[in-house]
Structure to design on (497 residues):
C-alpha cells in the first residue's frame, strides 16, 4: 500500500473520558436531551479530571431507536432538542413541557408550537441565523426535510414503498411535493436549526471546560434514509430502491450464520469517480459536531461482505474490495487534521491493520475481550499501543460488573494471575479492571458511565441481535457515589490522564 504524505497521529496526550449517549442523561422527559443536564454532565466530567465525552451517533432514529440505523447521515435527532431551551427563549410555554414529560407524542407538538412562535416573534438576528444555517447545510438539508415530510404523508412507510413518482424523484412530482409540503419542510428545517444551535452551545461549553466531544459514525447508512433516497448514485440500489446485495459480516466464532445487516452497499466506483464527495460532506458535518469521530466497522474500508439480498443469513456472501486508501487520502487532503478513530474489533486481517497504520489511526482495545487465557490476546494491556483507545467495555457489552460476576465470560485463573488481584471478591476484580484500563499505555481511556457507577446488567445499553428494550438506559445523579468517583479520579491522577 502506497500512501502519499505523512499523517500526524492524534494520540498526543494522555486522557480519560466517559461513554454516555445524551439519551441516557437524567431529566424529567422520556429521554435525555442536550439541555441543562448536558451542561451539568460536562461540569461533572471537568470536576473529576475527565476530558472526553464519547457518545453514540446523534442522527434521527427509526422506531427501534437504534442510533446505528438513522434516517440521515447528517441530521440531528429532534428527540435530543432541549424543550427547556425553547422555553427560556419564550418560544414554548410551560404547559407543553408538562405534557411532553408524560407522553412522547407531545414532543412533536411542542416543537411545532415553537416553530410557529419563532416565525412570529423571533427577531431579525435569529432569522438571519436561520438563513445562514440553510445556506451552510444546503447539500443535505432540503432533501432531508422533504424526505421527513413525505414519510409523514405516507404513514411512515419507507421511501422505496412510496408512489413511483416520488420514489424515483421525478422533477414534476418533486416540485409538486415541495409546494404541497412547504410548511412541513420548513418545520423540519427549523428543528434542525435548533438542534445544531443547541449543539454548538454545548460544544462551546465543553471546550471551555477542557472536555472534548467524541462522536460515532456508522460505516453504512440505513436503506430507509434520506441519503439513499436523494443521493442514490452513491449506493448499489436501482431507481425503485431495490438491492441485489446487502451488507453484513460473515460467519465467525460468535455467529455460525454471520450477521445480515441489510444496509445498502456503496457504489465505490461511482464514489471514486466523484472524488468521494458524499463522504467529504458527511465528514464535514461530523467535524462540525465533534472533536473526535469513531468510524464503526472500519474493516469495511478494506473490503465489505456482500450478501445476496434474497438470503436470510450472511453465509453465502463474498468479500468485495473497497478503495479505502484512496478514500482516506482524499479525506486527509480535505480535512487537516482528521481526528478519526478506527473501530477495528472482530476478525481483522493484515490488510486492515496495514490500512489503519498507514494513516496512523488509533484502534480500539476492550478489556472484556482480553481474558480468554491466551497471553497473546491483543486486548491485554501489555500489547496495547500508545495509538489505541482502551475501553473496559462498549455499548454492545454488558456492564463490567455483570461481566465479572459471570465467570463463563473469562478465564478467572488467568485473570487473577494477570491482574495481580489478590482477592476473589467482585469489588476487587472490578477495581483491577479499572486500574488496568487507566494504567494502559493507550493515549485515551474510555469508561462507560455504567462502569463508572459500578452498575449491574440491568444498565446494559444494547444486546446485539435483539430488538425491544435496547437504547433506553438512563442514569440518575443519586447513583453517583463520591467514594466510587474518588477512586477513579485518584487513578486518573496517578496514571497522568
Amino acid at each position: 500500500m502506497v500512501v502519499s504524505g505523512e499523517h500526524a497521529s492524534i494520540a498526543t496526550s494522555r486522557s480519560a473520558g466517559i461513554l454516555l449517549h445524551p439519551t441516557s442523561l437524567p431529566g424529567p422527559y422520556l429521554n435525555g436531551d442536550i439541555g441543562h443536564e448536558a451542561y451539568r454532565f460536562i461540569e461533572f466530567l471537568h470536576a473529576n479530571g475527565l476530558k472526553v465525552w464519547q457518545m453514540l451517533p446523534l442522527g434521527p432514529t427509526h422506531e427501534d431507536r437504534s442510533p446505528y440505523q438513522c434516517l440521515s447521515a447528517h441530521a440531528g435527532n429532534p428527540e435530543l432538542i432541549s424543550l427547556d431551551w425553547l422555553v427560556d427563549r419564550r418560544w414554548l410555554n410551560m404547559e407543553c413541557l408538562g405534557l411532553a414529560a408524560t407522553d412522547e407524542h407531545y414532543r412533536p407538538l411542542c416543537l411545532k408550537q415553537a416553530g410557529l412562535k419563532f416565525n412570529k416573534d423571533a427577531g431579525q438576528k435569529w432569522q438571519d441565523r436561520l438563513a445562514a444555517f440553510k445556506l451552510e447545510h444546503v447539500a443535505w438539508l432540503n432533501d432531508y426535510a422533504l424526505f421527513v415530510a413525505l414519510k409523514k404523508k405516507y404513514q411512515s412507510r419507507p421511501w422505496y414503498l412510496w408512489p413511483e413518482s416520488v420514489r424515483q424523484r421525478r422533477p414534476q412530482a418533486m416540485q409538486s411535493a415541495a409546494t404541497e409540503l412547504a410548511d412541513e419542510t420548513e418545520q423540519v428545517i427549523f428543528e434542525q436549526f435548533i438542534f445544531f444551535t443547541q449543539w454548538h452551545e454545548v460544544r462551546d461549553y465543553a471546550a471551555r471546560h477542557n472536555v472534548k466531544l467524541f462522536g460515532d459514525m456508522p460505516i453504512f447508512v440505513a436503506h430507509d434514509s434520506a441519503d439513499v433516497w436523494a443521493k442514490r448514485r452513491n449506493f448499489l440500489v436501482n431507481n425503485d430502491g431495490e438491492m441485489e446485495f446487502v451488507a453484513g459480516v460473515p460467519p465467525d466464532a460468535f455467529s455460525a450464520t454471520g450477521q445480515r445487516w441489510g444496509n445498502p452497499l456503496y457504489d465505490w466506483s461511482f464514489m471514486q469517480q466523484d472524488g468521494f464527495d458524499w463522504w467529504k460532506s458527511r465528514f464535514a458535518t461530523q467535524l462540525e459536531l465533534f472533536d473526535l469521530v469513531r468510524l464503526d466497522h472500519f474493516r469495511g474500508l478494506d473490503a465489505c461482505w456482500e450478501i445476496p439480498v434474497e438470503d436470510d443469513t450472511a453465509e453465502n456472501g463474498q468479500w468485495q474490495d473497497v478503495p479505502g486508501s484512496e478514500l482516506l487520502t482524499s479525506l486527509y487532503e480535505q480535512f487537516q487534521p482528521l481526528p478519526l478513530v478506527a473501530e477495528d474489533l472482530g476478525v481483522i486481517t493484515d490488510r486492515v491493520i496495514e490500512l489503519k497504520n498507514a494513516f496512523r489511526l488509533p484502534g480500539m482495545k476492550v478489556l472484556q475481550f482480553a481474558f480468554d487465557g491466551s497471553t497473546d490476546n491483543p486486548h491485554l494491556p501489555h500489547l496495547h499501543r500508545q495509538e489505541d483507545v482502551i475501553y473496559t467495555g462498549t455499548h454492545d457489552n454488558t456492564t463490567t460488573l455483570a461481566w465479572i460476576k459471570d465467570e463463563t465470560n473469562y478465564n478467572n485463573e488467568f485473570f487473577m494471575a494477570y491482574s495481580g488481584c489478590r482477592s476473589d471478591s467482585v469489588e476487587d476484580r472490578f477495581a483491577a479492571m479499572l486500574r488496568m484500563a487507566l494504567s494502559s499505555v493507550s493515549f485515551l481511556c474510555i469508561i462507560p458511565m455504567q462502569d463508572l457507577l459500578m452498575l449491574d446488567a440491568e444498565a446494559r445499553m444494547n444486546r446485539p441481535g435483539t430488538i425491544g428494550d435496547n437504547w433506553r438506559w438512563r442514569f440518575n445523579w443519586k447513583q453517583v457515589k463520591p467514594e466510587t468517583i474518588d477512586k477513579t479520579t485518584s487513578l486518573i491522577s496517578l496514571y497522568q490522564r
Observations:
- The radius of gyration is 23 Å.
- The mean pLDDT is 95.
- The chain has 19 helices and twelve strands.
- The first helix runs from residue 36 to 47.
